[in-house]
Amino acid sequence: MADVSQTVFCGGLPLAQASGDMADALSLLILLRAQGASLRVSHRAPWVEPRPGTGHIECMTSGSRGRPKVIRRTYASWEGSFEVNRKLFALSARDRAAVFGTLGHSLALYGVLEALHAGACVEVLAGMRPDHQADRLAQAGVSVLYATPTQLKLLPAERIIRDVRLILCGGGALDRITADRVSAVFPNAALREFYGASETSFITLSDEHTPQGSVGRVYPGVEIEIRDATNGVGEVWVKSPYLFEGYAEGESAETRRDGDLLTVGELGRQDGAGYLWLAGRTSRMVTIADKNVYPEEIERVLAEALGERVCAVVARRDPLRGNVLFVFVEGHKDDDEERRLRQQIRDDLGPEMVPRRFVYLDPFPLLASGKPDLGALEKRVA
Protein backbone atom coordinates (compact mmCIF):
# COMPACT_ATOMS: atom_id res chain seq x y z
CA MET A 1 0.00 0.00 0.00
CA ALA A 2 1.34 3.46 -0.91
CA ASP A 3 2.66 5.92 1.70
CA VAL A 4 -0.48 7.34 3.31
CA SER A 5 1.12 10.76 3.72
CA GLN A 6 1.04 11.03 -0.06
CA THR A 7 -2.19 9.20 -0.96
CA VAL A 8 -4.72 10.18 1.73
CA PHE A 9 -5.95 13.70 2.40
CA CYS A 10 -8.20 14.74 5.27
CA GLY A 11 -10.03 18.06 5.07
CA GLY A 12 -7.74 19.13 2.23
CA LEU A 13 -4.48 18.37 4.05
CA PRO A 14 -2.12 15.41 3.56
CA LEU A 15 -2.83 12.88 6.29
CA ALA A 16 0.65 13.39 7.74
CA GLN A 17 -0.20 17.05 8.34
CA ALA A 18 -3.85 16.65 9.36
CA SER A 19 -4.99 16.42 12.97
CA GLY A 20 -8.15 15.53 14.84
CA ASP A 21 -10.35 12.49 15.34
CA MET A 22 -10.95 11.80 11.66
CA ALA A 23 -7.27 12.00 10.75
CA ASP A 24 -6.41 9.66 13.62
CA ALA A 25 -9.15 7.26 12.53
CA LEU A 26 -7.90 7.22 8.94
CA SER A 27 -4.36 6.43 10.08
CA LEU A 28 -5.62 3.58 12.27
CA LEU A 29 -7.90 2.25 9.50
CA ILE A 30 -5.04 2.06 7.03
CA LEU A 31 -2.70 0.47 9.57
CA LEU A 32 -5.21 -2.21 10.59
CA ARG A 33 -6.12 -2.93 6.98
CA ALA A 34 -2.47 -3.32 5.99
CA GLN A 35 -2.05 -5.82 8.83
CA GLY A 36 -5.21 -7.71 7.88
CA ALA A 37 -6.50 -7.07 11.40
CA SER A 38 -10.21 -6.98 12.14
CA LEU A 39 -11.73 -3.60 12.95
CA ARG A 40 -15.01 -1.91 13.85
CA VAL A 41 -16.17 1.44 12.50
CA SER A 42 -18.81 3.38 14.46
CA HIS A 43 -20.93 6.50 13.90
CA ARG A 44 -18.90 8.71 16.22
CA ALA A 45 -15.34 9.39 17.31
CA PRO A 46 -12.92 7.72 17.65
CA TRP A 47 -14.61 6.06 14.61
CA VAL A 48 -12.23 3.08 14.24
CA GLU A 49 -11.21 0.48 16.82
CA PRO A 50 -9.37 -2.85 16.58
CA ARG A 51 -11.36 -6.06 17.03
CA PRO A 52 -10.20 -9.58 17.89
CA GLY A 53 -9.15 -11.83 15.03
CA THR A 54 -8.26 -11.07 11.44
CA GLY A 55 -9.88 -10.41 8.09
CA HIS A 56 -13.16 -8.79 9.15
CA ILE A 57 -14.81 -5.37 9.05
CA GLU A 58 -17.66 -4.47 11.38
CA CYS A 59 -19.71 -1.39 10.59
CA MET A 60 -23.00 0.06 11.75
CA THR A 61 -26.09 0.21 9.60
CA SER A 62 -27.90 3.54 9.25
CA GLY A 63 -31.23 2.18 10.48
CA SER A 64 -34.00 4.59 9.41
CA ARG A 65 -35.71 4.17 12.77
CA GLY A 66 -32.61 5.10 14.72
CA ARG A 67 -31.70 1.57 15.83
CA PRO A 68 -28.38 0.82 14.13
CA LYS A 69 -27.07 -2.73 13.98
CA VAL A 70 -23.46 -3.86 13.63
CA ILE A 71 -22.84 -5.98 10.56
CA ARG A 72 -19.81 -8.22 10.11
CA ARG A 73 -18.26 -8.92 6.74
CA THR A 74 -14.95 -10.17 5.43
CA TYR A 75 -12.46 -7.93 3.66
CA ALA A 76 -12.72 -10.39 0.77
CA SER A 77 -16.44 -9.68 0.32
CA TRP A 78 -15.59 -6.07 -0.53
CA GLU A 79 -12.37 -6.79 -2.38
CA GLY A 80 -14.33 -8.82 -4.92
CA SER A 81 -16.31 -5.73 -5.87
CA PHE A 82 -13.14 -3.60 -5.80
CA GLU A 83 -11.84 -5.74 -8.66
CA VAL A 84 -15.15 -5.61 -10.54
CA ASN A 85 -15.26 -1.81 -10.29
CA ARG A 86 -11.60 -1.49 -11.24
CA LYS A 87 -12.44 -3.17 -14.53
CA LEU A 88 -15.84 -1.57 -15.06
CA PHE A 89 -14.66 1.98 -14.43
CA ALA A 90 -10.92 1.75 -15.16
CA LEU A 91 -10.03 2.76 -11.61
CA SER A 92 -6.27 3.18 -11.24
CA ALA A 93 -3.45 5.06 -9.55
CA ARG A 94 -4.14 7.92 -11.98
CA ASP A 95 -7.43 8.64 -10.20
CA ARG A 96 -8.10 10.85 -7.23
CA ALA A 97 -11.22 9.81 -5.32
CA ALA A 98 -13.30 11.73 -2.76
CA VAL A 99 -15.88 10.89 -0.12
CA PHE A 100 -18.11 13.38 1.69
CA GLY A 101 -19.21 11.32 4.70
CA THR A 102 -17.47 10.20 7.85
CA LEU A 103 -15.97 6.73 8.08
CA GLY A 104 -19.06 5.75 10.07
CA HIS A 105 -21.06 5.82 6.86
CA SER A 106 -20.48 2.60 4.93
CA LEU A 107 -20.33 4.32 1.51
CA ALA A 108 -17.49 6.58 2.67
CA LEU A 109 -15.66 3.66 4.27
CA TYR A 110 -16.09 1.63 1.10
CA GLY A 111 -14.90 4.50 -1.09
CA VAL A 112 -11.74 5.03 0.94
CA LEU A 113 -10.81 1.35 0.89
CA GLU A 114 -11.64 0.92 -2.80
CA ALA A 115 -9.54 3.94 -3.78
CA LEU A 116 -6.57 2.65 -1.79
CA HIS A 117 -7.01 -0.81 -3.31
CA ALA A 118 -6.71 0.77 -6.76
CA GLY A 119 -3.65 2.77 -5.71
CA ALA A 120 -5.52 6.05 -6.09
CA CYS A 121 -5.32 9.13 -3.90
CA VAL A 122 -8.37 9.74 -1.75
CA GLU A 123 -9.82 12.92 -0.26
CA VAL A 124 -11.95 12.62 2.89
CA LEU A 125 -14.08 15.78 3.01
CA ALA A 126 -16.27 14.95 6.01
CA GLY A 127 -17.34 17.90 8.14
CA MET A 128 -16.72 20.51 5.46
CA ARG A 129 -19.45 22.84 4.20
CA PRO A 130 -20.86 21.74 0.82
CA ASP A 131 -19.45 24.81 -0.95
CA HIS A 132 -16.02 24.09 0.54
CA GLN A 133 -16.33 20.45 -0.52
CA ALA A 134 -17.03 21.64 -4.07
CA ASP A 135 -14.01 23.95 -3.91
CA ARG A 136 -11.77 21.06 -2.86
CA LEU A 137 -13.10 18.76 -5.59
CA ALA A 138 -12.09 21.36 -8.17
CA GLN A 139 -8.77 22.35 -6.57
CA ALA A 140 -7.57 18.77 -6.05
CA GLY A 141 -8.66 17.53 -9.49
CA VAL A 142 -10.86 14.77 -8.07
CA SER A 143 -11.88 12.28 -10.77
CA VAL A 144 -14.04 9.78 -8.84
CA LEU A 145 -16.70 10.74 -6.29
CA TYR A 146 -18.62 8.51 -3.86
CA ALA A 147 -21.74 10.27 -2.57
CA THR A 148 -25.32 9.85 -1.43
CA PRO A 149 -28.22 11.67 -3.13
CA THR A 150 -28.54 13.96 -0.10
CA GLN A 151 -24.87 14.92 -0.26
CA LEU A 152 -25.17 15.66 -3.98
CA LYS A 153 -28.27 17.81 -3.41
CA LEU A 154 -26.36 20.06 -1.02
CA LEU A 155 -23.61 20.99 -3.49
CA PRO A 156 -23.97 24.52 -4.91
CA ALA A 157 -25.82 24.32 -8.22
CA GLU A 158 -23.86 27.18 -9.77
CA ARG A 159 -20.50 25.36 -9.63
CA ILE A 160 -19.01 23.62 -12.66
CA ILE A 161 -16.51 20.86 -11.81
CA ARG A 162 -15.02 19.32 -14.93
CA ASP A 163 -12.40 16.84 -13.68
CA VAL A 164 -14.85 14.39 -12.09
CA ARG A 165 -15.36 11.54 -14.57
CA LEU A 166 -17.35 9.11 -12.40
CA ILE A 167 -19.89 9.48 -9.59
CA LEU A 168 -20.94 6.36 -7.69
CA CYS A 169 -24.18 7.27 -5.92
CA GLY A 170 -25.87 5.07 -3.33
CA GLY A 171 -27.68 5.16 -0.02
CA GLY A 172 -31.06 6.34 -1.28
CA ALA A 173 -33.22 7.08 -4.30
CA LEU A 174 -31.81 9.59 -6.78
CA ASP A 175 -34.63 11.77 -8.08
CA ARG A 176 -34.66 13.24 -11.59
CA ILE A 177 -34.19 16.86 -10.47
CA THR A 178 -31.09 16.00 -8.47
CA ALA A 179 -29.71 13.87 -11.30
CA ASP A 180 -30.16 16.81 -13.72
CA ARG A 181 -28.42 19.19 -11.29
CA VAL A 182 -25.54 16.74 -10.87
CA SER A 183 -25.15 16.51 -14.65
CA ALA A 184 -24.91 20.31 -14.82
CA VAL A 185 -22.37 20.59 -11.99
CA PHE A 186 -20.28 17.65 -13.29
CA PRO A 187 -20.65 17.87 -17.09
CA ASN A 188 -17.98 15.24 -17.80
CA ALA A 189 -19.06 12.68 -15.18
CA ALA A 190 -20.82 9.36 -15.70
CA LEU A 191 -23.43 9.15 -12.94
CA ARG A 192 -23.87 5.56 -11.81
CA GLU A 193 -26.53 4.87 -9.20
CA PHE A 194 -26.27 1.59 -7.34
CA TYR A 195 -28.73 -0.21 -5.12
CA GLY A 196 -27.73 -2.37 -2.21
CA ALA A 197 -27.78 -2.59 1.56
CA SER A 198 -25.10 -2.76 4.23
CA GLU A 199 -25.84 -6.49 4.45
CA THR A 200 -25.60 -7.14 0.70
CA SER A 201 -23.25 -4.52 -0.76
CA PHE A 202 -23.95 -4.07 -4.50
CA ILE A 203 -27.13 -5.60 -5.91
CA THR A 204 -27.80 -3.52 -9.03
CA LEU A 205 -26.02 -0.79 -10.97
CA SER A 206 -27.48 1.75 -13.37
CA ASP A 207 -26.15 2.59 -16.81
CA GLU A 208 -26.90 5.19 -19.46
CA HIS A 209 -29.92 3.20 -20.62
CA THR A 210 -31.58 2.70 -17.21
CA PRO A 211 -35.18 3.98 -17.26
CA GLN A 212 -36.07 6.76 -14.83
CA GLY A 213 -37.23 5.20 -11.58
CA SER A 214 -35.34 1.92 -11.98
CA VAL A 215 -32.23 1.12 -9.90
CA GLY A 216 -30.55 -0.68 -12.79
CA ARG A 217 -29.62 -4.25 -13.68
CA VAL A 218 -27.85 -6.85 -11.58
CA TYR A 219 -24.29 -6.05 -10.57
CA PRO A 220 -21.70 -8.52 -11.96
CA GLY A 221 -21.72 -11.75 -9.97
CA VAL A 222 -25.16 -11.13 -8.43
CA GLU A 223 -28.36 -13.09 -9.05
CA ILE A 224 -31.85 -11.83 -8.12
CA GLU A 225 -34.98 -13.81 -7.42
CA ILE A 226 -38.41 -12.19 -6.92
CA ARG A 227 -40.51 -14.32 -4.57
CA ASP A 228 -44.23 -14.44 -3.73
CA ALA A 229 -45.07 -11.74 -6.27
CA THR A 230 -48.43 -9.98 -6.38
CA ASN A 231 -49.01 -8.00 -9.58
CA GLY A 232 -45.34 -8.54 -10.32
CA VAL A 233 -44.10 -7.09 -7.02
CA GLY A 234 -42.48 -9.51 -4.59
CA GLU A 235 -39.67 -9.85 -2.11
CA VAL A 236 -36.17 -9.37 -3.56
CA TRP A 237 -33.79 -12.25 -2.76
CA VAL A 238 -30.10 -12.06 -3.66
CA LYS A 239 -27.36 -14.59 -4.32
CA SER A 240 -23.99 -12.86 -4.27
CA PRO A 241 -20.31 -13.22 -3.33
CA TYR A 242 -20.54 -9.80 -1.62
CA LEU A 243 -22.94 -10.70 1.21
CA PHE A 244 -22.17 -10.06 4.86
CA GLU A 245 -21.54 -12.85 7.35
CA GLY A 246 -24.06 -11.81 9.99
CA TYR A 247 -24.84 -9.29 12.71
CA ALA A 248 -22.18 -8.77 15.35
CA GLU A 249 -24.76 -6.84 17.38
CA GLY A 250 -28.52 -6.50 16.97
CA GLU A 251 -30.76 -8.32 14.55
CA SER A 252 -33.40 -7.70 11.91
CA ALA A 253 -36.54 -9.74 11.35
CA GLU A 254 -36.46 -8.60 7.70
CA THR A 255 -33.01 -10.08 7.02
CA ARG A 256 -33.39 -13.79 6.29
CA ARG A 257 -31.35 -16.48 4.56
CA ASP A 258 -32.44 -19.43 2.47
CA GLY A 259 -29.40 -21.42 1.49
CA ASP A 260 -27.18 -19.18 -0.65
CA LEU A 261 -29.85 -16.47 -0.94
CA LEU A 262 -30.52 -13.52 1.34
CA THR A 263 -33.26 -10.90 1.61
CA VAL A 264 -33.37 -7.67 3.61
CA GLY A 265 -37.13 -7.37 3.12
CA GLU A 266 -37.08 -5.12 0.06
CA LEU A 267 -40.00 -5.40 -2.36
CA GLY A 268 -39.62 -4.93 -6.10
CA ARG A 269 -40.09 -6.24 -9.62
CA GLN A 270 -37.92 -6.95 -12.65
CA ASP A 271 -39.04 -5.98 -16.12
CA GLY A 272 -38.42 -7.94 -19.31
CA ALA A 273 -35.11 -6.17 -19.89
CA GLY A 274 -33.83 -7.14 -16.44
CA TYR A 275 -34.16 -3.72 -14.81
CA LEU A 276 -35.13 -3.75 -11.13
CA TRP A 277 -37.87 -1.45 -9.83
CA LEU A 278 -38.24 -1.05 -6.07
CA ALA A 279 -41.56 -0.61 -4.29
CA GLY A 280 -40.38 -0.34 -0.69
CA ARG A 281 -39.52 -2.30 2.42
CA THR A 282 -41.82 -4.99 3.76
CA SER A 283 -41.69 -3.29 7.17
CA ARG A 284 -43.01 -0.01 5.73
CA MET A 285 -45.79 -1.41 3.56
CA VAL A 286 -49.25 -0.61 4.97
CA THR A 287 -52.82 -1.37 3.96
CA ILE A 288 -55.23 1.46 3.18
CA ALA A 289 -58.79 0.55 2.21
CA ASP A 290 -57.62 -3.04 1.50
CA LYS A 291 -54.86 -1.90 -0.86
CA ASN A 292 -51.12 -2.35 -0.26
CA VAL A 293 -49.45 1.06 -0.12
CA TYR A 294 -45.72 1.77 -0.15
CA PRO A 295 -44.70 5.08 1.52
CA GLU A 296 -41.48 5.09 -0.51
CA GLU A 297 -43.51 5.59 -3.72
CA ILE A 298 -44.98 8.78 -2.30
CA GLU A 299 -41.56 9.94 -1.14
CA ARG A 300 -40.22 9.51 -4.68
CA VAL A 301 -43.00 11.70 -6.10
CA LEU A 302 -42.40 14.35 -3.44
CA ALA A 303 -38.64 14.31 -3.99
CA GLU A 304 -39.19 15.28 -7.63
CA ALA A 305 -41.23 18.32 -6.55
CA LEU A 306 -39.23 19.41 -3.49
CA GLY A 307 -35.74 19.40 -4.97
CA GLU A 308 -33.15 19.84 -2.20
CA ARG A 309 -35.62 19.64 0.68
CA VAL A 310 -36.05 16.45 2.72
CA CYS A 311 -39.37 14.63 3.15
CA ALA A 312 -40.67 11.41 4.65
CA VAL A 313 -43.99 9.55 4.87
CA VAL A 314 -45.17 7.64 7.94
CA ALA A 315 -48.38 5.75 8.68
CA ARG A 316 -50.71 5.62 11.69
CA ARG A 317 -53.27 2.92 12.37
CA ASP A 318 -56.87 3.88 11.59
CA PRO A 319 -59.95 1.82 12.54
CA LEU A 320 -61.82 2.62 9.31
CA ARG A 321 -59.18 2.65 6.59
CA GLY A 322 -56.54 0.40 8.15
CA ASN A 323 -53.92 3.16 8.07
CA VAL A 324 -53.65 6.85 7.29
CA LEU A 325 -50.55 8.61 5.97
CA PHE A 326 -48.71 11.68 7.21
CA VAL A 327 -46.15 13.59 5.16
CA PHE A 328 -43.31 15.47 6.86
CA VAL A 329 -41.59 18.15 4.78
CA GLU A 330 -38.51 20.19 5.59
CA GLY A 331 -39.34 23.90 5.86
CA HIS A 332 -42.29 26.08 6.79
CA LYS A 333 -45.96 25.59 6.00
CA ASP A 334 -47.06 26.72 2.54
CA ASP A 335 -50.74 26.14 1.69
CA ASP A 336 -50.26 26.64 -2.06
CA GLU A 337 -47.36 24.18 -2.14
CA GLU A 338 -49.35 21.64 -0.15
CA ARG A 339 -52.23 21.81 -2.63
CA ARG A 340 -49.80 21.25 -5.51
CA LEU A 341 -48.14 18.31 -3.76
CA ARG A 342 -51.48 16.68 -2.96
CA GLN A 343 -52.55 17.01 -6.59
CA GLN A 344 -49.23 15.59 -7.82
CA ILE A 345 -49.61 12.52 -5.60
CA ARG A 346 -53.23 12.09 -6.74
CA ASP A 347 -52.26 12.36 -10.42
CA ASP A 348 -49.27 10.02 -10.20
CA LEU A 349 -50.38 7.41 -7.67
CA GLY A 350 -54.14 7.67 -7.16
CA PRO A 351 -56.43 9.23 -4.55
CA GLU A 352 -55.90 6.56 -1.89
CA MET A 353 -52.22 7.54 -1.71
CA VAL A 354 -52.93 11.19 -0.77
CA PRO A 355 -51.84 11.65 2.86
CA ARG A 356 -54.24 12.82 5.53
CA ARG A 357 -51.95 15.57 6.74
CA PHE A 358 -48.82 17.50 5.78
CA VAL A 359 -46.48 18.54 8.60
CA TYR A 360 -43.68 21.05 8.01
CA LEU A 361 -40.56 20.84 10.20
CA ASP A 362 -37.52 23.08 10.49
CA PRO A 363 -35.13 21.60 11.43
CA PHE A 364 -35.96 18.18 10.05
CA PRO A 365 -34.87 15.16 12.18
CA LEU A 366 -32.10 13.28 10.40
CA LEU A 367 -29.86 10.32 11.21
CA ALA A 368 -26.07 10.49 10.99
CA SER A 369 -26.34 9.11 7.44
CA GLY A 370 -28.48 12.07 6.35
CA LYS A 371 -31.62 9.94 6.03
CA PRO A 372 -34.89 10.96 7.74
CA ASP A 373 -35.24 9.68 11.30
CA LEU A 374 -38.44 7.68 10.83
CA GLY A 375 -38.50 6.64 14.46
CA ALA A 376 -38.66 10.27 15.62
CA LEU A 377 -41.35 11.07 13.01
CA GLU A 378 -43.48 8.06 13.96
CA LYS A 379 -43.56 9.28 17.55
CA ARG A 380 -45.15 12.51 16.35
CA VAL A 381 -48.19 10.69 14.93
CA ALA A 382 -48.50 7.94 17.56
TrEMBL record:
<comment type="similarity">
    <text>Belongs to the ATP-dependent AMP-binding enzyme family.</text>
</comment>
<dbReference type="InterPro" id="IPR025110">
    <property type="entry name" value="AMP-bd_C"/>
</dbReference>
<dbReference type="GO" id="GO:0031956">
    <property type="term" value="F:medium-chain fatty acid-CoA ligase activity"/>
</dbReference>
<dbReference type="InterPro" id="IPR000873">
    <property type="entry name" value="AMP-dep_synth/lig_dom"/>
</dbReference>
<dbReference type="Pfam" id="PF00501">
    <property type="entry name" value="AMP-binding"/>
</dbReference>
<dbReference type="InterPro" id="IPR042099">
    <property type="entry name" value="ANL_N_sf"/>
</dbReference>
<protein>
    <submittedName>
        <fullName>Long-chain acyl-CoA synthetase</fullName>
    </submittedName>
</protein>
<keyword id="KW-0436">Ligase</keyword>
<dbReference type="Pfam" id="PF13193">
    <property type="entry name" value="AMP-binding_C"/>
</dbReference>
<feature type="domain" description="AMP-dependent synthetase/ligase">
    <location>
        <begin position="59"/>
        <end position="247"/>
    </location>
</feature>
<dbReference type="InterPro" id="IPR045851">
    <property type="entry name" value="AMP-bd_C_sf"/>
</dbReference>
<dbReference type="GO" id="GO:0006631">
    <property type="term" value="P:fatty acid metabolic process"/>
</dbReference>
<feature type="domain" description="AMP-binding enzyme C-terminal">
    <location>
        <begin position="297"/>
        <end position="371"/>
    </location>
</feature>
